[in-house]
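Morning F.,

Quick status update on the modeling queue. The single chain you submitted on Monday has been processed. Sequence for confirmation:
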Amino acid sequence: MKLNQAAFDVGQLAERLSQGYYAHLAAISVATDPRAAQLAPQIQPGQIVPVADVKRKDGTAHVFHFLHFLSLASSDDLIAAELERVWFAGTLLRVGDALAQHQYFDRAPELELLRHLRNGIAHGNRFRIDNPSSLTKFPAHNRLAWIRSDLKSDFEIEPALNGTEVLFSFMEPGDILDLLMSIGLYLIRMGNGDPLRP
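C-alpha cells below.
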C-alpha cells in the first residue's frame, strides 16, 4: 500500500507517457526510412494496393492506402510536424486532466507549470492567464524540478505570456520531457512518502 496511491498512479502515468514519446520517435524513425515500405501488409483479395484500416464503433472501418500514407510521414513536412505536436498536446491534456482530478496535489511549481501548459493547449495552443495574481500564490516554474537540461534552463509562467504560443515556442519537446519526467519522479516519491526534493 502506498502512502498516496493517487499521486503514485499519476506519477507513473507521466513516466509512461514520457517513455511513450521515445517509442513514438522510434516508430516515426522507422516509418520514414525508405526500407519501411517492405513492412507493408500484403495486398488483400479485392484490393490493388496494401491497405490498413481504422475501426469505427459500429464495426465498420476507414480503409486507407498504407504505402501512400506511410510516405507522408517523411514527404510532407506539415504532417511530420503535426505528429510531434499532437503527441505532446495529447500528453499534456492527459496528465493535466489526471492532476486536476486531485486538485494538482500540493500545487508544486512544476505541477502548476504543467497546468498552464495543459490549459494553453486546450485554448488553441495559447497561454490564457486569466488571474495573474494567482501566480504569486501558486508559482509555475521548473527551478525545483528533478530533471533539467545540462544548462539548467528555467521556464516560468508570467503574466506577459498571456496569448503567446505554448508548443513549441515556450518549450521544446526535450524541455517538456524533462518536465514530465520530473513530475513523474515527484509524484511517485509523494506516493511512496519519500522526500520530494533532491
